Amino acid sequence: MKxxxxxxxxxxxxxxIYIVDATSILDNSTLKSIKTEFIKKLYTKLFANCCLLxxxxxxxxxxxxxxxxxxxxxxxxxxxxxxxxxxxxxxSQQLVSFAxxxxxxxxxxxxxxxxxxxxxxGMFTGTVEVCYDSVDLFFSHFYSKSEQTETVFxxxxxxxxxxxxxxxPLPFTDDVNMKRVMESVNSNEMYISxxxxxxxxxxVFPYARIIEQYxxxxxxxxxxxxxxxxxxxxxxxxxxxxxxxxxxxxLVCGICGKKYxxxxxxLETIVKIKER
Length: 276
Known about the structure:
- This protein has 276 residues and is α+β, with helices and mostly antiparallel strands.
- The protein has one domain: Hsp33 domain (3-Layer(bab) Sandwich), CATH 3.55.30.10.
- It is built from 10 helices and 12 strands.
- The protein has helices at residues 23-26, 37-53, 93-96, 135-145, 175-187, 189-194, 200-204, 224-231, 236-244, 264-274; strands at residues 5-10, 15-21, 62-69, 76-82, 87-92, 111-118, 122-129, 152-158, 161-169, 208-214, 249-253, 259-262.
- The strands form 2 sheets. It has a 7-stranded antiparallel β-sheet with strand order 7-6-3-4-5-11-12, with helices on both faces.
């Protein structure tokens, strides 16, 4: 399998750039089973952004979990990325069948949580409110608020090709240099989203060099235990609320489509573990 996530660093060593081609991974997902165009677009945009975050993992024992809880009850997204590049991505059944629009999903009560680390080194979670009607801005807002780091996310789907770009300036970056990189990306959006993948670094980013290349994949080895681990990244208050309402949580594997239910006892066990 070809490398589909590339990390670049500008020659002045001021700005990190990540580009991803998530097309082949998406082909193995349950996207085809989604009926509405709005949810299909939401699915692909979120997936591309999650894939970009895989570039932050540098060791096999590291992992990163992304959890989005929308305002509409039961509508959630969970993604888990392992250091070896394996990615698992799930939409809740309620979100798959959702018939509203962005205004029903974002705003008061909607959250994005990202957990990053390793089992030995510890896991660290940041959570921010989801208040934008742009998926790319979900993640830019997270890093601005939770990490105090300006980070720009841009994703495109063009003729079945799904790609994304993440731009993150390092401390003390010259604003002029950041502006130049953004102008470069904005003026080459069509090329980035449709050109030969191997040509993009040299033609769009001649002012940067490749630091690392990764291979993201979606080999389905799902189990309830794996999903249990992903539920650990969910905001504890959201889980407590579900317990109070005597609601079950249902997650659908984004690769094979298998459904996993978490009843009240499961949720209470998760809360006990998180409160230790």
